[in-house]
């Protein structure tokens, strides 16, 4: 990239996009520095971190809006584009690349198509045929009105450089080959509706550690918390690595609002310890007390409980996911993938809660603070000995929309040497 400027600010081409229930700034890889300290300084300055309000940057003071995506044409034969996801800390000074974001992954295909990065058209798949006329996710994946005009779908094969795993996005496109954002599909936590984008995550097992679904080798383990309590956990690595535990084991119902849980300081300390002990167990940190320095975001803690059975929800389980020491306002897409994968293994914390009958269904409906997140999950068989099945389906539907494009500005001093203050 060319960093020359006659101003005290530098303009960098960027696109601001919503993907699912998150937002991110998208860049072409060619427009920003290569991986390293210079890039990290730039991305933090763009987002406005570290600052709890992110007032002098593009971030929205929440983990779900402190995200970036770096896109380029793929150098690999079997994929179309490379996608590097970046999670930037809000109040802390962290920039992390070793994870994924399922919500933001929904926007990768539309960005790639509209930016001219896709050279070959492959016919994609539309969402499942609806069984009724609902336009919401209340009843799983049958969320399309029967009267909705059917667009053409394009298959985009995406390589996540952060996890070194592939996933497939099925993008609705118009007659001119541009992505379609208008549609009747509604997702929880996003007002209005949009065109459905189906994301196939079957190939993402072992996303963080490349050790299969269960990096410990067990569907369930136990940890000793500092309060003397022994807690059963499942560490599941699909999409993103998560650690699941029963909400009641951390003294909550699992039905509280996200804001209430984030304000509950003893719970945040407990979820941090849960993350730290799980991270230490699988080698992501040497000392759980140092997890915020050594593994600040992963594994994502998820506390689960029986659903509230709100009218018509069809929920199988209730989940509260924590990211950056805050409760997620809804449910991470990759967290849902990890959730669904664990739910089909006998003996896991998730399977034990939902029961054998729910595990035989083809959708897992997860109740979260703002609604329902359905994940299509089908396996070759349920192994009674706790073995990991072969996943025939592991997918979810999101919507995405381009919000703004142009340039994002940063002070030129951000590119000075490391000793210089970027805030001078």
UniProtKB/TrEMBL annotation:
A matching Pfam family: PrpF
Keyword Cell cycle applies: no
Renumbered residue ranges of the record's region Disordered: 122-146
Compositional bias segments (type: Polar residues): 131-140
Entry's Gene Ontology molecular function annotations: isomerase activity
Keywords: Isomerase
The family this protein is said to belong to: Belongs to the PrpF family.
Protein name: PrpF protein
Organism from which the protein derives: Cladophialophora psammophila CBS 110553
């Amino acid at each position: 990239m060319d960093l020359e400027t006659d101003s005290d600010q530098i303009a960098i081409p960027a696109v601001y996009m919503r993907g699912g229930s998150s937002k991110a700034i998208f860049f072409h890889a060619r427009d920003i520095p290569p991986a390293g300290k210079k890039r990290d300084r730039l991305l933090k300055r763009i987002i406005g971190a570290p600052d709890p309000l992110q007032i002098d940057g593009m971030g929205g003071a929440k983990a779900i809006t402190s995200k970036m995506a770096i896109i380029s044409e793929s150098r690999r034969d079997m994929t179309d584009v490379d996608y590097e996801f970046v999670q930037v800390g809000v109040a802390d000074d962290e920039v992390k690349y070793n994870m994924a974001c399922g919500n933001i992954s929904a926007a990768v295909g539309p960005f790639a198509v509209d930016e001219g990065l896709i050279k070959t058209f492959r016919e994609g798949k539309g969402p499942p045929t609806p069984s009724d006329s609902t336009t919401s996710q209340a009843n799983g994946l049958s969320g399309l009105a029967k009267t909705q005009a059917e667009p053409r779908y394009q298959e985009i094969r995406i390589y996540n450089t952060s996890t070194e795993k592939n996933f497939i996005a099925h993008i609705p496109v118009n007659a001119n080959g541009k992505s379609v954002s208008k549609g009747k599909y509604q997702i929880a936590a996003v007002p209005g509706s949009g065109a459905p984008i189906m994301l196939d995550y079957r190939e993402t097992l072992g996303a963080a550690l490349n050790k299969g679904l269960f990096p410990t080798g067990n569907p369930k383990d136990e940890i000793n918390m500092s309060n003397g309590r022994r807690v059963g956990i499942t560490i599941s690595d699909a999409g993103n690595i998560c650690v699941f535990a029963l909400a009641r084991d951390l003294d909550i119902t699992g039905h509280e609002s996200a804001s209430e849980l984030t304000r509950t300081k003893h719970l945040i300390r407990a979820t941090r310890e849960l993350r730290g002990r799980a991270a230490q167990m699988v080698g992501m940190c040497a000392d759980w007390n140092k997890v915020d320095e050594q593994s600040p975001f992963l594994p994502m803690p998820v506390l689960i409980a029986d659903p509230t059975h709100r009218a018509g929800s069809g929920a199988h389980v209730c989940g509260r996911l924590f990211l950056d020491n805050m409760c997620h306002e809804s449910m991470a897409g990759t967290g849902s993938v990890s959730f669904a994968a664990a739910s089909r293994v006998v003996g896991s914390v998730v399977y034990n809660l939902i029961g054998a009958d729910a595990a035989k269904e083809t959708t897992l409906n997860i109740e979260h603070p703002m609604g329902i997140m359905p994940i299509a999950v089908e396996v070759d068989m349920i192994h009674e000995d706790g073995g990991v099945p072969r996943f025939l389906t592991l997918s979810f539907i999101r919507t995405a929309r381009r919000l703004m494009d142009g340039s994002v500005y940063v002070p030129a001093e951000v590119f000075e040497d490391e000793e210089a203050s970027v805030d001078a």
